[in-house]
Amino acid sequence: MPPSAPAAPDTPAEPALRQAATVMLVRDAPEPGPDGGALEVLMVRRNLKADFVGGAYVFPGGAVDPADAGPDAEAACVGRSDAEASALLGLPSGGLAYWVAVLRETFEEAGLLLAERPGGPALLAGDGDTGEVARFGAERAAVNARSRRFLDLCRDEQLRLLVGDVHYFARWITPKGAPRRYDTRFFVAAAPPGQIAAHDAGETIADVWISPADALAQHREGDIELIFPTIRNLQAIGRFATSAALLAAAAEASSSVPTIEPRVVTDGNGVRIVLPGDEDFEGMPPTDGAGFAGDFNEVVRAISMKANLEGLAGLEGLEGLEGLEGLEGGGEPTP
Predict the structure, then answer these.
(1) Cα separation, 263 vs 43, whole angstroms
(2) pLDDT tens column, 305-321
(3) How many CB atoms lie within 10 A of CB 4?
(4) How many CA atoms lie within 13 A of 265 on its CB side?
């Protein structure tokens, strides 16, 4: 009887996709920058001990939690129903949870609350109500500690989440073969007037309002860390001179946001990302993980720097943002 063939080595199971949401909060600087643009975006810095690219600057966001969904979500939201949110995301139901998640994460990580109390004054707008500031500070700590459900806070404080002012902008899926994968929806919204951002000194250790051009330049100089999808979304919103122009374009294009799932290629030039629409994307088989050999964080850093440097030559190739093309004249967790 011939000897049996050696058993094939076990193939590691592909990690499950984690659903995530992140938001680019934007405002206009008091004075235009050297390029004539006034647009600024809020970025927070990851804790240095984070498993994935610790210390990187990102937009506020995180995982979509089951507690962000359900009848309480629709009761707390104004400007968008679950059916409307689900249609935009291409889901049968439950889409509103992504908007709730991104507003919850913004409250947790940056202390900003995109909500209103009907008939009441603007929330946390620096009007001298120190009692409100202290109360919401304590509520923020409780939500962060998971001892307080965000939607329960909204119910008890009679708040309505302004989800109609938060626009779906992009969708990025981590390439196959990565040790941890996310399906991340990016949103864009105007910063709540009068509120002051403050990182939570836990998951995030710094916060900054910065122009997209300055953020990209500081990354190229090695002063800050950025990751690939963040870079691509900064390049996209950096085409707009004002927050109003960006938000108008995003509102127009939010019903036609395609999915971007890059592929990793290893060739004679090192590791690179191939995006849908690139010349060699269709003929490129999905990665088996070989492109991530070694330190995954270092692979991400190399890919991200290359994407930023290539952006200096122009913004062509921003796949997934076709709906915004031609609209910029009026002026995105995790890979």
Answers:
(1) 26
(2) 777 677 655 444 433 33
(3) 6
(4) 15
